Amino acid sequence: MSVALVLVSHSTRLADGVAELTAEMAPDVVVRCAAGDVDGGLGTSLERVQEALDAALAGAASAVVLADLGSAVLTVESALEIDPDLTRRVRLVSAPFVEGAVAAAVTAQQGAQLEGVVAAAEDAARSIGPEPVYELVESSGAEGPPVAATGTQGEVVPEPGAPSSGAADEVSTVVEIRNPLGLHARPAAVVARSVADFGVPVTVEGADATSVLALMSLGTTAGQRVTVTARGEGADTAVALVTGLIEGGFGEA
């Protein structure tokens, strides 16, 4: 991978946890942590940041840095001021620590260059907003008439079947989520990595299939039906691939 990831945190456990998460979804991306103070407590260390940057750049052409709090940002900025040559290869991004790291790692795994990985991390902030990702529905336990299956946006969707064509270059199909937690982090990463090389736009319920966070934000669960759509040359193959992954349940069904 040409872009590495450096996680700068006050907490060793926080950084290690995020690193573990990114490794699950982007196994080929170099991830280095600079966490805790020199005595192993909560805090930041300029020396540890410098060591993490050196280690990251030893295995990649460039690096994206995420920091958990303001003082961690200041520590990274100090490291870059001490060695101005690093600024050509290192970008400190303003992004949510966990979501930004996931988005950056998956994008780097897809082969993006430095600016593309930076953009992915910064765009991750869009996944955090005032609206809840999941809507909890309380059941009264009373039996009632069957209701039509709905997509994540509440619209009625057709029964699953063979792919259908809308526009001349568009292919879409409806598929049922098989695994209990739907497109959570690991399955979303599998889908994102799988469609990245097709070179055609692919969506699941309108969400960009190359974006882990966009797929996760759908809040899908077992039994829900989603529409997979692709446009352009090779769209039918892309739709078939994503449909097969979802129907397979990602090994969790």
UniProtKB/TrEMBL annotation:
It catalyses: dihydroxyacetone + phosphoenolpyruvate = dihydroxyacetone phosphate + pyruvate. GO terms for cellular component: membrane. It is an enzyme of class 2 (transferase). It comes from the Bacteria. CDD domains: PTS-HPr_like. Residues 138-170 are annotated as: Disordered. GO terms for biological process: glycerol catabolic process; phosphoenolpyruvate-dependent sugar phosphotransferase system. One of its GO terms (molecular function) is phosphoenolpyruvate-glycerone phosphotransferase activity. Residues 170-253 form the HPr domain. Keywords: Transferase. Its EC number is 2.7.1.121. Residues 2-128 form the PTS EIIA type-4 domain. It holds the Pfam family EIIA-man. Homodimer. The dihydroxyacetone kinase complex is composed of a homodimer of DhaM, a homodimer of DhaK and the subunit DhaL. General (non sugar-specific) component of the phosphoenolpyruvate-dependent sugar phosphotransferase system (sugar PTS). This major carbohydrate active-transport system catalyzes the phosphorylation of incoming sugar substrates concomitantly with their translocation across the cell membrane. The phosphoryl group from phosphoenolpyruvate (PEP) is transferred to the phosphoryl carrier protein HPr by enzyme I. Phospho-HPr then transfers it to the PTS EIIA domain. Component of the dihydroxyacetone kinase complex, which is responsible for the phosphoenolpyruvate (PEP)-dependent phosphorylation of dihydroxyacetone. DhaM serves as the phosphoryl donor. Is phosphorylated by phosphoenolpyruvate in an EI- and HPr-dependent reaction, and a phosphorelay system on histidine residues finally leads to phosphoryl transfer to DhaL and dihydroxyacetone. This is Phosphocarrier protein HPr. It comes from Isoptericola sediminis.
